[in-house]
Design brief:
Protein name: Metal-dependent hydrolase
Number of helices: 4
Organism: Streptomyces albidoflavus
Keywords: Hydrolase, Signal
Distance between the termini: 54 Å
Radius of gyration: 25 Å
Number of strands: 12
GO molecular function, one term: hydrolase activity
Oligomer: single chain
InterPro entries: Endo/exonu/phosph_ase_sf, Endo/exonuclease/phosphatase, GPI-anchor_lipid_remodeler
Length: about 290
């Protein structure tokens, strides 16, 4: 009994001291959060048609599946748009067939054709989309400067189609922006669009802003003057190869761009053949908890 009490008098204080040392050590040297891997891609799907102008969604599903990407930004997405894509909803159909969540932002949303069948035919829409293996928490369709292709003598004016999809990647919120910039040789509209996008992405947040990605067809080469501003705050995940036209690419106009809080491991163009008139850009990233 006396031996037991003596041991308690010495051992208990010793255990308390060891616990305090371990606690202090853990506080002084907190465990570094493990980075979260994420594969992303951007792909202009040419409204479901290949470079051969043949509509073949099965071919594009195979191409998209081969990327094995967690998040994919899509451009030139038809939703009940017309005969060229068989009046199908490409955004939802691709998401369903790939087992992914989807967010869609129309650039154009037009009344149905007068001869459309059914009592309430859907609107004819064309725009950009984000496919995600991770849950989509919020979707916003922002306006940027547009020069419409749907009317005569258009003037630059604000129009929708700059998609922001907030996804939850293993508990980390991530803002994914998908865009398709003006295709005309005159860079004036593209320059205005770049400025508009940066204003949207730089908006203050009520709390700490999530890291963000910008995925899209910029319709400009990396050294184009109108693309200089984004690289002040974003990193170009350069695949080291051209992306257009798909069969004999000679220029890079498709981009994955990352903000702070995202580490780039590698980027490449995927060999998807002529499933579209563009090649996809794919990037392996690491997200860090902030």
């Amino acid at each position: 009994m006396h031996i037991h009490l003596a041991l308690r008098r010495h051992v208990v204080p010793l255990l308390l001291a060891v616990g305090l040392v371990l606690t202090a050590s853990a506080t002084a040297h907190p465990a570094t959060p493990r980075p979260v891997p994420l594969r992303v891609a951007t792909y202009n799907i040419h409204a479901g048609a290949g470079e051969d102008e043949v509509f073949d969604l099965d071919r594009q599903v195979r191409a998209l599946r081969s990327l094995d990407a967690d998040v994919i930004g899509l451009q030139e997405v038809d939703v009940h748009w017309g005969e060229r894509s068989q009046w199908r909803d490409l955004a939802r159909e691709l998401a369903h067939r790939l087992g992914m969540h989807v967010a869609f932002a129309p650039i154009y949303s037009l009344d149905p054709e007068p001869a459309a069948a059914g009592p309430t035919p859907p609107r004819r829409e064309f725009g950009v989309a984000v496919l995600s293996r991770h849950p989509v928490l919020r979707v916003r369709n922002h306006e940027i400067t547009r020069l419409s292709t749907q009317g005569e003598n258009p003037l630059p004016e604000p129009g929708p189609g700059f998609l922001q999809a907030t996804v939850a990647v293993r508990g980390i919120p991530l803002d994914v922006y998908a865009t398709h910039l003006d295709y005309r040789p005159d860079p004036t509209v593209r320059a205005a669009q770049v400025a508009d996008m940066l204003r949207v992405m730089d908006r203050p947040c009520p709390f700490r802003c999530p890291a963000h990605l910008l995925l899209g067809d910029f319709n400009a080469r990396p050294d184009a003057p109108e693309l200089t501003p984004p690289w002040a705050t974003l990193r170009d995940a350069d695949p080291g190869a051209p992306t257009f036209p798909a069969s004999a690419p000679d220029r890079r106009i498709d981009y994955v761009a990352t903000s702070a809080g995202i580490a780039l491991r590698r980027a490449w163009t995927a060999p998807t053949g002529i499933a579209s008139d563009h090649l996809p850009v794919v990037a392996d990233l690491h997200l860090t908890r902030r």
